[in-house]
């Protein structure tokens, strides 16, 4: 926000001081030192003419209570900045009002009278100092980068050197040059301060940007690491579940095979027991007569042999089927079949012994 110091066009000693007004955004380009403006003045906001004698980026009073310039008179009279500076110097050193000197300066400029003769009679031969005070100040206000402010600083220093040269030549009014030189030196200090401030701001901004970039990189790396970790955990979990499922399938199939072995053994044992009981009863029945014992023994042995052949075939088929099921499982281990084989062999030996004893009888 830009603020303008305005001298009101009223020749009253109590009001002979600058009043600060806000420069609206649309008027910034036309707001120059020396420009004629229309301002609301007093509690009734009476419209008065005034002249801008200074521009600043800082408010001297409460911003909410500060009024804004109503209009900049583009077709009006523009007082040169160095003449306003001269009028202010005369007021401070010789008395009078700023408004009166400003009006006299503007009127003198419009009537074509030499600016230097209005205040310094007898020095009409002095050259007029062409010093534009607003040029450096406006550039300094608009500077937003340290490089731009540094360029303005260089220009301000060059202006100081040129004014010092003008002061030494004697071709210009010394008082006018001194006023301009003092202003130029203040502009140098202002420019140096702004360059320093902008550099601090830019360094701080770069620092924050580096910290932000580093933080974003750290967050991205952390996200990638977590995603990778989750992928590995998921793969490991799936592999573990798959192994557990395979082991469950193995256990289930092995349990089924053990059940089948146990059931088949029980079934064969029951069948053998029934057959042995039948043969025993048959032998007891047939041995009731002595004359027929030899013929009965021959028939019984033939029957027993037939039963033994069928039993052995059934055992061989059952054993082959269970071995095939064991080989089909994912378990690479070898299943011990010694128990089943020994059980079958024991049953067969028992059956053969019983038959032999029956034949002897």
Q: Provide the succession of SSEs.
A: EEEEEHHHHHHH
Task: Quickly count the helices.
Answer: 7
For the largest beta-sheet, the strand count, sense and barrel status come to: 5 strands, antiparallel
Strand content: 5-15%
Compute the separation of the termini in Å.
134 Å
Using only C-alpha atoms, the radius of gyration works out to 60 Å
What structural category characterises the helix and strand content?
A: alpha+beta
State the strand order across the main sheet: 2-1-4-3-5
Number of strands: 5
Helix content: 55-70%
Q: Estimate the mean pLDDT confidence.
A: 76
Shape: rod-shaped
Q: List unreliable stretches of 5+ residues.
A: 107-124, 290-299, 332-361
Protein model, in words:
It contains 7 helices and 5 strands. With 361 residues, the chain is of the alpha+beta class. A 5-stranded antiparallel beta sheet has the order 2-1-4-3-5. The termini are far apart. The C terminus is likely disordered.
Brief descriptors of the model:
about 10% strand; alpha+beta; about 350 residues; five-stranded antiparallel β-sheet
Provide a brief overview of the structure.
The chain has seven helices and five strands.
């Amino acid at each position: 926000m830009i603020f303008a110091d305005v001298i009101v066009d009223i020749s009253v000693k109590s009001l002979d001081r600058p009043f600060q007004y806000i420069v609206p955004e649309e008027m910034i380009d036309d707001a120059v030192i020396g420009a004629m403006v229309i301002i609301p003045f007093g509690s009734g906001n009476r419209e008065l003419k005034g002249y801008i004698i200074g521009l600043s980026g800082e408010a001297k009073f409460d911003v909410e209570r500060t009024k804004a310039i109503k209009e900049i008179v583009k077709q009006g009279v523009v007082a040169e900045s160095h003449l306003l500076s001269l009028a202010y110097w005369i007021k401070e050193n010789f008395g009078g009002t700023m408004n009166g000197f400003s009006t006299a300066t503007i009127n003198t400029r419009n009537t074509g009278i030499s600016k230097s003769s209005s205040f310094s009679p007898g020095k009409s031969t002095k050259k007029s100092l062409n010093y534009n005070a607003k040029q450096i100040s406006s550039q300094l206000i608009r500077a937003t980068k340290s490089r731009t402010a540094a360029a303005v600083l260089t220009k301000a220093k060059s202006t100081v050197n040129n004014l010092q040269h003008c002061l030494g030549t004697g071709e210009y009014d010394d008082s006018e040059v001194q006023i301009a030189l003092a202003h130029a030196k203040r502009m140098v200090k202002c420019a140096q301060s702004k360059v320093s401030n902008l550099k601090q701001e830019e360094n701080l901004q770069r620092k924050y940007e580096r910290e932000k970039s580093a933080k974003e990189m750290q967050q991205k790396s952390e996200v990638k690491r977590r995603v990778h970790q989750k992928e590995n955990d998921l793969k490991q979990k799936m592999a573990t579940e798959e192994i557990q499922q395979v082991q469950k399938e193995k256990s289930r199939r092995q349990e089924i095979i053990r059940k089948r072995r146990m059931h088949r053994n029980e079934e064969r044992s029951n069948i053998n027991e029934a057959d042995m009981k039948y043969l025993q009863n048959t032998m007891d029945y047939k041995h009731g007569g002595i004359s027929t014992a030899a013929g009965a023994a021959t028939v019984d042995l033939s029957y027993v042999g037939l039963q033994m052949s069928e039993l052995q075939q059934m055992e061989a088929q059952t054993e082959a089927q269970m071995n095939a099921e064991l080989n089909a499982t994912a378990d690479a281990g070898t299943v011990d079949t010694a128990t089943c084989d020994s059980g079958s062999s024991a049953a067969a030996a028992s059956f053969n012994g019983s038959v032999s004893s029956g034949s002897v009888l």
